[in-house]
Amino acid sequence: MSHELETGGFVKQAAWHGLGNVVENAPETYEEMLQISGLDWLVEKRPLFFERAENEFQESGKAFGLVRETDNRLLGVVGKGYREFQNEDALEWCQPLVDSGYWNFEAAGSLRNGEICWGLLKQGEFEAAPGDLLKEYLLVCWTHNGKKAVRVQPTSIRVVCMNTLTASLGGEGKIHSIRHNANLMPKMEEVRAIYETATKQFAKQHENIRVLVNSVWKEKKMQEYIDTLLPDPATLTGKAATIATKNKEQLEDMVIGGLASGADLDGVQGTAWGAFSGVSEFVEHYLGQNRVKDRGTNILYGKGADLLSDAFALAQAMS
Predict the structure, then answer these.
(1) Strand locations in 3-113, DSSP E?
(2) Which helix (H) or strand (E) holds 185?
(3) What residue segments make up the domains of the chain, in order of their start?
(4) Which of 86, 93, 124, 237 could be disulfide-bonded to 136 (CB atoms 3.0-4.6 Å)?
(5) How does the average pLDDT of the chain come out, rounded?
(6) Among 248, 251, 245, 236, which residue's Cα sits nearest to residue 284?
């Protein structure tokens, strides 16, 4: 989620670049998480006006602005029937999950000056290889720009480089929808169903990763992996060719040159898992670095997520 982090609260460890508010103990209530993460603000749907003539304005009636009350920042434009979904609604929805004992509040924050907000509920941990720890989370992500639905899905973070590894879960992505109604808290049977689905996806992830860990690759195969994954700069022209060349060189440094974090760990070096981990770090920390403010959204919704999905599928196919 990188440099576009506006505010965030984290348990024990700061965000990817040392940003955010860090606390020692996991909050027990959503109210605490709201305060710690800086998400204790509201959005309001306000009518938009257009200028009919000089100094003469008329209310649209069809278009409304989603405005943050604390600073009057316009976050998005929505229709008449859109109902505001507050940060409090999302984190309060998480409370029964935390109360169940299956998860703990771990982090929450906002991106793009409040347009996108998210929370992480920690579920467990998994050691992919000796010293290579993955933390397992339930990601809850919602927007205030009127463009994306609320999303609940399992995700992992590779601790050695703080990379998200949703692509390796082998699931269907979103596993639950939060309706825009604060009164619809998940019942216990729904909590159990979410937990069971997430657990199955994490079990599939463990299985997928073990295959990659046990697949030893020589440098030639690493190069084939990169060449298949990224476009050939020779087939492009102008700025596109320059960007493609730079991306390929950086990825080669990460995957083949051993510059990726944890590349020298036993069970990681020279494996398909090490190659994919290098791609993951490249996407999260280097891809599109001339557009740093967009990188977090790129990982969640954009081309970065697509590239990681392709990279994992290719690593599986080549193993």
Answers:
(1) 5-11, 21-23, 43-53, 56-68, 73-79, 104-111
(2) none
(3) 2-40+84-206, 43-79, 211-318
(4) 124
(5) 86
(6) 251
The string of pLDDT tens digits covering residues 58-106 is 888 889 999 999 999 999 999 988 888 899 999 999 999 999 999 999 9
Distance CA 103, CA 196 (A): 12
Query: What is the band of 180 on the pLDDT scale with cuts at 50, 70, 90?
Result: low
Q: What is the pTM of this model?
A: 0.84
Q: How far apart are CA 163 and CA 165, in angstroms?
A: 6
Convert 192-225 to b/e letters by CB count within 10 Å (16 or more is b). Answer: eebbebbeebbeebbebbeebbebebeeebbeeb
Which comes out higher in pLDDT, residue 2 or 82? 82
CA angle 235, 238, 241 (to 5 degrees): 45
Strand 151-158 and strand 73-79: the pairing is unpaired
Phi, psi of 14 (to 5 degrees): -70, 175
Residue that is written with structure tokens 């599109």 in the block: 288
H-type helices in 14-125, by residue range?
30-37, 87-99
